[in-house]
């Protein structure tokens, strides 16, 4: 049996605890929401406009990804069955970021 076939067979034999995976995804989403809120408030208070605000968002997303990677010790498959569940929902975070960015910008710099 080749090494590739052995890895495929091993992957097919793995079982996942769905409660633990659900908890991991919820923790990830909570962290993303908090990061988006903090970045949106910071961008609004600092008065960032245009691409500068989005650059701040993507920098904070990158920092958060590094933190999660260090926390998982680079072994994502121990906590998530596939990499997609780790990276799939940045759209909601971006909407939260824009909402708070506009709100705090308006409260600090317009009014």
UniProtKB/TrEMBL annotation:
GO cellular component: EMC complex
Domain of life: Eukaryota
InterPro entries: Emc6, EMC6-like
Principal location listed in the UniProt entry: endoplasmic reticulum
A biological process term (GO) from this entry: autophagosome assembly
Keywords carried by this UniProt record: Endoplasmic reticulum, Membrane, Transmembrane, Transmembrane helix
Membrane topology: Multi-pass membrane protein
Transmembrane segments: 45-68, 88-108
Subcellular location: Endoplasmic reticulum membrane
One Pfam family named in its UniProt record: EMC6
Family the UniProt entry places it in: Belongs to the EMC6 family.
Descriptive protein name: ER membrane protein complex subunit 6
